[in-house]
Amino acid sequence: MIITLILLIVSCCCSGLAVPSSSIVTGANGFVGRHIVYSLIQQRQSDDVILCLVRESKVECEQLYWDAHLSDLKESERCSVRVLPYDMLDGGTLESALQAASRVSPSSKICVYHTASVFGPTEDPVQTAIDNVKSAEIVVKAMQGFIRQRRVTSSSDAAARLVLTSSMAAVRATNQTPLNNKFYTNKDWNTLSTLDPTNWGSCYQYSKAESERRALELVAKSPNELEFVALCPSFVFGPPPPLPKQFESQTSESAGESSSSSFSISLIKQWLSGASQVQSRLCVDVRDVAQAHIAAGQMKLGDGDDQKRYILSTEARLSSELTAEALKRAVDQHVRQSGSSSDVDTSEINCDTEFDGGAIKIGDQEVECTDILRDELGVTCRSVDVTFYDMVVAMLAGSF
Q1: What pLDDT is stored for residue 26 in this prediction?
Q2: pTM for the complete prediction?
């Protein structure tokens, strides 16, 4: 029933199209997922299809949100965006989306951006980690099954690609020494994190490393079936996508209902209010993460080169003091430029001065990724100052 319904929805919206390119985004209402969909919309042609997979309770509000974004574009620039129910532990919901995308055009290229993952403390962090790993396995198996069925039923060799949102947590554990004893590269793997029921952070780190490993193992068992790119962002900060025009007149509270949630947004609010100390974090802008995902979905892969892995990050972390100064500058600049007051008392911002960076000291090069991101994905990461400024301005403007 659900497959038939999805096929009808997508077919009705895309009838008469030539050969569209189909993108499927799991966790599409998350911080990273929202930015991927927004960027896809800005770059897509009118005959392209984007399927946003979210929890069933979020389908209606997400469809309204993306319909509003599409209404801001010229009719000739609008692609099809459909929001569908998704359960990351139920492979059938992804299979339904894959079949829907394929029915639109049997020869189209399909790319799945798998961002769905649980992050943060839960009642049972071990089970949460296990579920995260299982989710990645389900996605790979669903896509492989879809490819095999597609080749049998349509004799199509059209490619399917999985872009997996992994994490720096898959690259290294806390205090883990890099393989080259200098900085982390895409050759490094987290080998220390465990399923410790008393430490949700360790459980999460374990889940990201194991999810990527299991996905790679499954892809390797069936060569020449599924193209695979893993992206490992460091801590993701940045503003949410711009609100659609028809949402701009909403109150801050209503606008907040239209925005995605993010641990980094909550963290920034705590830092600005003085509720928690500003920390030194290796980080990356969410907009650069989204662009890297799209580039990874579109890049050409050579023969025998159907698996890629990239770190997404600035190469060194700012100290907590410099991070705090960047936040204060953002608040002050916004007040001057907007001519409005701010509820943020920057004198309340305080810093954690005890953390020294762990295995790699604060200020030293921590990762190597700038050149390869520029050369292979065409992505240059924004400076931390720009990221925090834009994030603080968006917050003060009521965008989240």
Answers
A1: 97
A2: 0.90
